[in-house]
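User: Modeling request: complex.
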Amino acid sequence: MSAIPEAARLVHVPLDDRAYDVHIGPGLLARSGALVGPLLHRPRVAILTDETVAARHLGALTTGLTAAGIDSTSLALPAGEATKSWAQLTRTVEWMLSERIERRDVLIALGGGVIGDLGGFAAAVLRRGIRFVQIPTSLLAQVDSSVGGKTGINTSHGKNLVGAFHQPSLVLADTDVLATLTPRDFLAGYGEVVKYGLLGDADFFAWLEANGPAMAAGDTAARVEAVARSVQMKADIVVRDETEQGDRALLNLGHTFGHALESATGYSDRLLHGEGVAIGCALAFDLSARLGLCAQEEPSRVRAHLADMGMKARLSDIPGDLPDADALLDLMGQDKKVIDGQLRFILARGIGNSFVTSDVPRELVRDLLATSLADRIPA
Ligand code: GLY
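Assistant: Request completed. Predicted assembly structure:
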């Protein structure tokens, strides 16, 4: 529990008959029964989690549910990206059926992005769709993957290639649970927070420059504010473009570069997703500056903030060897955003002013990567 009680914040996602609330603040696990109860037709829920999160937070969740008279059954899967698989999807669905989870029941996904994505997809297909509640326990999941209804699993052909848009019925982002993250995992999630300032809110980026270090150090009010502003931005974009026909692609700022870097490092501990996004954001600003879209100072300001936060900001911060510029370009060509063979980039006219384009000469991207690999980008 937080030492300093802070009022929880509420972001409403107004998606017609799929509208839902996102509660953000400390102490929400303890209040889970009161918050989830109104969704239930009978006082019983299924909880999907992973073994690491279960050891830390499942007890607090079930205590919160029991306080409101809600019974629960839970399944804890192995922690890690490998769990987003057909095998674990089958296991989850079969488990819910064996637990007699009915069409009107609710699944709670308690965990990071892996559990949220897998649980959401299992909920989307069980009995042709049951409702689910996201209780995200990583910063990345709180500000990104728990909101917006993207669910799915990975296959041997790539990440997130099988899934469904299935919106949660409620999201509880308990900021107290962020205290159990390692500093590295916290900062990886912070990569997605910075992304919001960069893509659409210069004032938020300036706020992060001033408050990011306090937030990382554990300041509860700063954490609530940063998560709430990020979720509000995501909600606004999702409401404009739920199924990513246009504007939602802005949320992929930094991801075209980031996914190629994750792939080049074998999705290993060498580079976490949010770290790849942060470096990718800096590269997207480099590319924008090279195209004359924004001032040369903008990428430097992005990198200065990442460095202030103790984050990876350039390719040379990634341990070990990287493939050459052509190989990285090829990896970028496998991005889901490629349309008719054309790479799509999120570029910026300045901090807080991004847009989607396919109009980027391949040679320019190759040169940028080659220069960055040689670490000749001025700080
Ligand atoms: N994580 C990007 C999106 O939800 O669209």
